[in-house]
Amino acid sequence: MSDREFGGNDDLSLPKATVQKIITEILHSDPGVTFAKDTRDLLIECCVEFITLISSEANEIAEKDAKKTIACEHVKAALEELDFGDYVPAILEVAADYKKQQANREKKQTKIEQSGMTEEELIRQQQELFRSATDKFNAAQ
Amino acid sequence: MPYNNTPIAPSQEVSGQVSLPLARVQKIIHADLSSPHVSKNASFAIALATEMFIQHLATTTHNVVKAERKPRRNIQYRDIASAVAKTDNLEFLVDVAPRTMQFKEYKKKR
């Protein structure tokens, strides 16, 4: 396998353990069945080929769309073009979820930046709030 | 409730996550393309599609083995090659997973 060219100088593949995990989950209905080691490695090569295939198709679609960046839409169209249209509904669902997560993360980040204070100042402010809350609590006793 | 019995459509639980590492997937994407402009959501979609693809390929190969007269417990290289040869949308893998042939057939071809 070392004489295989990947068109790049680094080792382009996916982590074997992760792929093995996905395989095991799929085959859980038939627990005695396993994939031979070289078969699993072949599966990984097929995946790399798949990624390359989808990427180039999506790339062409993006170019035809006069867009410089490949977007989710182009990936979706590529999948349909390559006869993997069954994947599209599930991908749209999970991708929407992922986008929401990303948006939330960015919101939290900008809120901290927008306060205009450094982390130390924010921590100090928080401690003061705690202190005043404790004082109020003690006063009410 | 209408049940989708398509054997090919893989199951996918909904969570905004994917098991495969995004960075590795992105590396593979960029190794092939001339332009580095891929949106993060697009890379995520590709990673997700790849995960579903693994499920699809594993299931199809498993079905090939199950359909044999003496089903084995250990799935081998030639089973993937079989699955690739039989399934339409796996045609692009014909070079990656070629059908193995007996040496005497190979000699005959030369």
Explain what you see.
The complex is a heterodimer of chains A (141) and B (110). Chain A contains 5 helices and 1 strand, in the order αβαααα. Chain A is mostly helical. Chain A folds into 2 domains: 102 residues, Histone, subunit A; 30 residues. In chain A, α2 packs across α3 and α3 runs antiparallel to α4. Chain A starts with 15 loop residues before the first helix and ends with a helix. About 4% of the residues of chain A have low confidence. With 110 residues, chain B is an all-alpha fold. Chain B has one domain: Histone, subunit A (Orthogonal Bundle), CATH 1.10.20.10. In chain B, 50% of the residues lie in helices and 2% in strands. Chain B is extended. Chain B starts with 21 loop residues before the first helix and ends with a helix. The mean pLDDT of chain B is 82. At the A-B interface, α1, β1, α2, α3 and α4 of A face α1, α2, β1 and α3 of B. Chain A: It is found in: Nucleus. Chain A: Pfam families: CBFD_NFYB_HMF. Chain A: One of its GO terms (cellular component) is negative cofactor 2 complex. Chain A: Keywords: Nucleus.
- Assembly state of the chains shown: heterodimer
CATH superfamily of chain B: Histone, subunit A
Largest sheet of chain B, in brief, is:
none
Q: Using the CA coordinates, give the radius of gyration of chain A.
A: 25 Å
What's the total helix number of chain B? Answer: 4
